[in-house]
Amino acid sequence: DYQTYTTGLALDLSRQDTVSLTFLGADYSYSSRGSFNTRGGTFGWSRRFTPNVTLNSTAGALVVDPSLNTGASSATTVAPVGNLALLWNDQTTTLTAAYNIGVSPSFQFESATLRSQVVSLNLVQQTAIPQLLGVAGVNYGHGEQIGAGSAGFSYDAWGGTGGLTYRLTPQTYLGTTYSYSHNDQSFGGQDFTIERHMVQVSLAQAF
């Protein structure tokens, strides 16, 4: 059970630059196993360098206040949060390289508060066939339990996705995607590995 809160404001400094200030809050409950809440904020800056290249960034911090019955430290922690994304976009190609750091809940093995970092690269490419788009992406993530030391839960995960989307009509799209993920997890001195292969076929209608 959880609730999140977000509010803020943005200001255009010029035709190329936008800054923002955002308040972030969340309350997470694990029932009898405890709860934790976060409060903080970020400062954001977006810069359009050229008609094709845009940089989006945010940086800030969250105060993490845990109250969990799992043996992890209940001390209040200040955790960094933010993201950095570089986008290229033209008539045929959309390419995004991104980095994100944040705080999230985990229900794997035990209730926990995780500090996670993710790096990703994603591509959408128009093919020689006007109605056909190719999509591809790779990502790597690392997470570790806050306040638990080496005995807590941590993971390293990486994966990739590739697929095609065909526009049947201006509002109807048929897609097929293959994705692979590899997840190395550690908890209580034991290591676990989870691998997943998935093929997905989708039919979408826009209104």
Structure explained in plain terms:
Helix content is 0%, strand content 77%. With 207 residues, the chain is an all-beta fold. Strand 10 and strand 11 form a beta hairpin.
Strand order of the largest sheet: 1-2-3-4-5-6-7-8-9-10-11
The biggest beta sheet reads: 11 strands, antiparallel
Number of strands: 11
Share in helix: under 10%
Gap from first CA to last CA: 32 Å
Order of helices and strands: EEEEEEEEEEE
Helical segment count:
0
Which structural traits does this protein have?
207 residues; mainly beta; eleven-stranded antiparallel β-sheet
Topology:
Elements: E1 2-12, E2 17-29, E3 34-48, E4 53-68, E5 77-89, E6 93-106, E7 112-126, E8 132-145, E9 154-169, E10 172-187, E11 190-205
Antiparallel strand pairs: 1-2, 2-3, 3-4, 4-5, 5-6, 6-7, 7-8, 8-9, 9-10, 10-11
Short account of what is shown:
The chain has strands at about 1-10, 15-30, 35-50, 55-70, 75-90, 95-105, 110-125, 130-145, 155-170, 170-185, 190-205. With about 210 residues, the chain is mostly beta strands.
